[in-house]
Amino acid sequence: MTAPAPKTRSMKRTAIACSAVVLGMVGAAYAAVPLYELFCKVTGFGGTPRVASAEATRQSDREITVRFDANVAPGLNWKFGPEQAQVNVRLGETKTVFYKLKNRGDQPAVGMATYNVTPNQAGNSFAKLECFCFNEMVLQPGEEIDVPVVFFVDPALADVPDIGNTISKITLSYTFFPAKQKAQKPVAGLNGQEAPKL
C-alpha cells in the first residue's frame, strides 16, 4: 500500500482548517448578539443603560432632567406611554416612574420592549434597578396595566471629562415590538392587576 501523496495530505489539512474556520464563524455569529447585549448592559455602550444591583452609595446636589419616550412598533395594537413626560433628579437619587400599557385590539397580544438612552455618552451613567424591558408580556383585549422603571443617574457622571458638566438632559426611550411567542402564564402586576408575561 502506498502512502498518500504530499499534495493529497496538504489538501486534507486545508479542508479541515477551512471547516474549522467556518464552524468557528457560525458559532461566533450565534454568540455575537447575546455577547454584544451583555457588553452594552455592563458598559453602557451605545446608550444602553447599565443594570444595577443596588442603589447609588452617594447623592449629589446637581440635578439632571430625565425625559421619557415611548413607541410601539407596527403590528402591535397597544397604547404605551409614560405617566409623566419628565422628572428632575439629583445625581445618585433613586427614582421610580411608571408607564401605562393598554391593548387596544380585540385579541390577546404579546409584546416585548427594548430601550436606549440619549445622549449615548450617558448610557454608562444611567443605571436601572428594575425594568419591564426584555420581558415578553401579554395583554388581553382592553387590558391596561402600569409597569415600573426604577433608576438612578450615577453621580460619577459629573466627573466624566468633556461631557460630565455639559449633559443636563437624558432621554430614556422604550419601543414595544410584537413578540413571536405566546404567553404561558400570568404573574401578579401592580395595583392588583394581572400582568401576564413569560
Provide a quick synopsis of the model:
This protein is α+β, with helices and mostly antiparallel strands. 19% of the residues lie in helices and 35% in strands.
Describe this structure in words.
This protein has 198 residues and is α+β, with helices and mostly antiparallel strands. It folds into two domains: 8-43; 50-192, Ctag/Cox11 (Pfam 04442) (Sandwich), CATH 2.60.370. It is built from one helix and ten strands. The longest helix has 38 residues, at 6-43. The chain is flat, with a radius of gyration of 23 Å.
List the helices and strands and how they pair.
Blueprint: H1 6-43, E1 50-51, E2 63-72, E3 78-82, E4 86-90, E5 95-103, E6 109-118, E7 126-130, E8 137-139, E9 144-153, E10 169-178
Parallel strand pairs: 1-7, 2-10
Antiparallel strand pairs: 2-4, 3-5, 5-9, 6-8, 6-10, 7-9
Index terms:
single chain; alpha+beta; Ctag/Cox11 (Pfam 04442); five-stranded mixed β-sheet; 1 helix
Question: Which whole number gives the mean pLDDT?
Answer: 78
Structural class: alpha+beta
CATH architecture of the largest domain: Sandwich
Radius of gyration: 23 Å
State the helical fraction. 10-25%
- Which CATH C-level class of the largest domain is it? Mainly Beta
Query: Strand content of the residues, in percent?
Result: 25-35%
Shape: flat
The CATH superfamily of the largest domain is identified as Ctag/Cox11
The largest β sheet comes out as: 5 strands, mixed
